[in-house]
Write a structure and sequence with these properties.
With 260 residues, the protein is of the alpha/beta class. The chain has one domain: 2-Layer Sandwich (BirA Bifunctional Protein, domain 2), CATH 3.30.930. 30% of the residues lie in helices and 25% in strands. The chain has seven helices and 14 strands. Strands 11-12-7-3-2-14 form a six-stranded mixed sheet, sandwiched between helices. The relative contact order is 0.20.
């Protein structure tokens, strides 16, 4: 069955807002995502946001130990460190396009909403890269949280995450604010995210194992497509995927570009 046909969709397209805030600091990006949640309480209009990170930034899951990262080395190299309002593990945000989604849960479970958003991502990104898939199983995260080699998000996969032939392409995390969800995630374009090894507070043997896991379990759009993929292409493809899966209408926002 086609991914677009797996979900009940409204008879008429629903208004959504799309915004690209460009490259911003880690603190700005996390605060802006939270501001979208507050705005949604008033407008009830779902939002699909795109953004990047300047300078590059390591984000930690809300329940992650900050001591996992050597902040001093990161700061020395001009790398921001920030906490996310969502869970999961550390990500070095660099050569990627980040997306965030804010919408009403509509009674969907966390897993079902994660599945639907990931299906929208696959539907859109498949226009740029062939053979994309959703992972069908999840690692034992209670066990993995005690394993220092799994500090980086991209060293493991969760169910319904977007990948290519068993290798992870998009890492996402979600948090619920009552009946409102915020989900955001990294769509990998290049390989620089692997440099997170340099900033892990672990011994060299663990870094080597983590590096092997990142090599074996991650991929990028540039690698899959065999060319340099432009961020604007990715944003347009993802919007198209959301239009099909969520029956969303972005015509009123037109992918607005934030310049504030």
């Amino acid at each position: 069955m086609d991914a677009v046909e797996r979900f009940d969709r409204p008879a008429r397209p629903r208004e959504w807002f799309s915004i690209d805030t460009g490259d911003r600091s880690g603190e700005f990006n996390m605060k802006f995502d939270l501001s979208l949640v507050e705005e949604f309480r008033v407008t009830k209009v779902p939002v699909l946001r795109f953004y990047g990170w300047k300078p590059y930034c390591i984000s930690l899951g809300k329940n992650q130990n900050a001591a996992d990262i050597d902040v001093d080395i990161a700061k020395r190299d001009g790398i921001d460190v920030v906490k996310r309002p969502t869970g999961g593990k550390a990500v070095l945000h660099s050569e990627e396009l980040t997306y965030s989604v804010v919408l009403e849960t509509g009674g969907m479970s966390v897993r079902d909403s994660y599945n639907m958003i990931s299906t929208a991502l696959v539907t859109g990104l498949s226009k740029l890269a062939a053979d994309l898939e959703l992972s069908e199983s999840s690692a034992d995260f209670q066990k993995l949280f005690r394993d220092p080699s799994t500090i980086p998000c991209f060293s493991t996969s969760a169910v319904y995450e977007v990948g290519h032939r068993g290798r992870k392409l998009v890492g996402s995390a979600q948090h619920r604010f009552g009946d409102i969800l915020l989900q955001h995630g990294s769509i990998l374009i290049g390989d620089y995210h692997k440099q997170i090894l340099k900033y892990l507070n672990v011994d060299q043997s663990v870094k080597e194992k983590t590096g092997q896991d990142l090599e074996a379990h991650t991929t990028t759009l540039n690698e899959i497509a065999g060319r340099d993929v432009d961020r604007s292409e990715i944003a347009e493809a993802v919007r198209t995927g959301f239009e099909q899966v969520f029956s969303s209408d972005f015509s009123s926002s037109g992918g607005a570009d934030f310049r504030g």
